[in-house]
């Protein structure tokens, strides 16, 4: 659990940096505070930054601020793509699982379960690792007692 929490904080920090750069580039007022607030929401599994950014973009679109709406939407898409790429590597490293396995588990879970699969991928990878470790220990104990 500790490793998963550390990886979530690291991913939120990446989101914070990307949001700061994007908000500063787009000239959004109070960019630092807005980026910090959205990064905190990014710690919430599944919902994350989309819980703030999607309604924010829609509101600006409805108000006729189409440029700002598209900028927020583009920044959100960039954020999601970077997070989807970084998450398996960061989570895998923190949980002691090879990044490729975490990445594959995440992709397979996303294909099977949709967006919730992004969270389940790391959990599935940890469960598989635990099962393999237990079976390896059991097999080694069996071999020792058999001799």
UniProtKB/TrEMBL annotation:
Pfam families linked to this entry: AI-2E_transport
InterPro entries: AI-2E-like
Keyword Transmembrane helix: yes
Example GO BP: transmembrane transport
Keywords: Membrane, Transmembrane, Transmembrane helix
Membrane topology type: Multi-pass membrane protein
Keyword Zinc found: no
TM annotation in the entry: 6-28, 35-56, 103-132
Subcellular location: Membrane
GO CC list: membrane
Similarity comment: family membership: Belongs to the autoinducer-2 exporter (AI-2E) (TC 2.A.86) family.
Protein name (record): Sodium-lithium/proton antiporter
Organism of this sequence: bioreactor metagenome
């Amino acid at each position: 659990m500790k490793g998963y929490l550390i990886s979530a904080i690291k991913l939120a920090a990446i989101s914070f940096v990307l949001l700061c750069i994007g908000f500063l580039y787009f000239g959004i007022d109070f960019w630092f505070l807005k980026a910090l607030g959205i990064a905190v929401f990014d710690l919430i599994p599944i919902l994350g930054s989309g819980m703030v950014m999607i309604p924010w973009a829609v509101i600006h679109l409805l108000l006729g601020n189409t440029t700002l709406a598209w900028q927020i939407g583009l920044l959100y898409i960039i954020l999601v793509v970077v997070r989807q790429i970084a998450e398996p590597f960061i989570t895998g490293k923190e949980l002691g699982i090879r990044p490729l396995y975490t990445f594959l588990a995440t992709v397979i879970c996303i294909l099977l379960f949709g967006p919730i699969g992004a969270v389940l991928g790391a959990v599935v990878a940890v469960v598989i690792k635990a099962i393999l470790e237990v079976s390896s220990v059991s097999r080694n104990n069996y071999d020792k007692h058999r001799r």
